[in-house]
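Blinded run. Sample ID left blank on purpose so nobody reads anything into the name before looking at the predicted structure. Input follows.
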Amino acid sequence: MQGSVFKEFSERTQSFLQVKTEVFFKINQLQEVFMKKFLGILGIILFIFGCGSNIKPEDHEALKNKNGELEKALAEKQKESETLQEEINQLKLQMQKISDEKTALENELKSEKETYSANMAEMQGKMEENEKLYSQNALKNPNISKNQEEIDKKNKEVESLKKDMNQLKDSLSKSLNEQKKLLADEIAKLKSQLKENEAKTQEALNKSKSVESQAEAIKKQIQEKEAMMNELNQKIAKLAEEGEKKLKEKDEEISKINQVYTQLVDELKQEIDKKEITITKLKDKLTIQVLNQVVFASGKASVTKEGEKVLQSVAKILQDVKDKQIFVEGHTDDLPIVSSIASQFPTNWELSAARAISVVRFFQNQGIDPKLLAAVGYGEFKPIVPNDTMENRKLNRRVEIVLLPMINKTEESTSEERSDTKKNEPIEKEKIEKLIENQKLEKSN
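Blinded prediction complete.
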């Protein structure tokens, strides 16, 4: 019975031997119980030997009671072994401590083995001595043989306990070796995992640094783009303001041109009806075409009396125009200069230029600011119709008075800026398109 109890205990605790303190504590408890029961049996034997033939029936009864107590104690130990199973389950939580306790466990186990061997040797010696004393006393006292069967039974139990203890010792040693191997494997596995985790941690750290670098670069790009957008918005606002201002100025210029046009049409209605004068306007440009025959005699560059009347009517209206550039352009047909005037006007260029200058001088004499006046001769090189008929040649022989908006230095600078802006438009457009594309990508990410 006792052997089966220890065997069951050994089987239940075999897989949990790595927890050194608790297991050896239970082993020590079993050893103490064993020693107590052994000493109890030894006491009974000594009692029997000491009493000799004076053993009374009540002493036999006490011996039986003692034996019953032993069996009861063993039953309690069996119950304790079941309780031990529950305690061992709790000990699983302490398995992580085994790595630190392994060396101490091996040293203590060695010490326990030596102590156990010494105790067993001492017990064996006492048992042999007791058996010898028993044999000697049996010869002297025949009555003791009545308890031989009971004593033999107890001896068998003791032998069974010894056997169980030896099995438990072997099992402990085997389980410890297995546990050491498992621990070594687990430690190697943990080291491998630690190395792998360190590599992953380093990789994550590198990625984190890369992400931080990318974030910083993106932040810088955003700042640059915001600065670019602010600059573009300022340019747009400035251009819008300038455009609105220019539009207003254009409207005023067109209004003035329309006013001049109306005045000229009213003043020169008779000549217009005769188709000697043509007045055209295009937005802020006004052109007065006067046929040469109205202003000049054939081959001459001086203004005729009739021409002065017409030009006076024009000058009267142009005197109030202070913000327009007045260009006087001379034009001829493609017929060559006749020999009689070739010395004065070698080509149609000279003739057309001289006629334009005559009109400019006349306007100046009429009080028009000379700073607004300019003369140019185109000769036969800007016909309005082909020079293939007499009628067409008549139309091409003309003086054109062209009114255009004044171009001052500020406007020239603005014009240059516009030219530069146009040159930069593809670059700015490309930047804007790239900015929009990047913003789309950022939103999608």
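Unblinding after everyone has recorded impressions. DSSP finds eleven helices and five strands in the chain.
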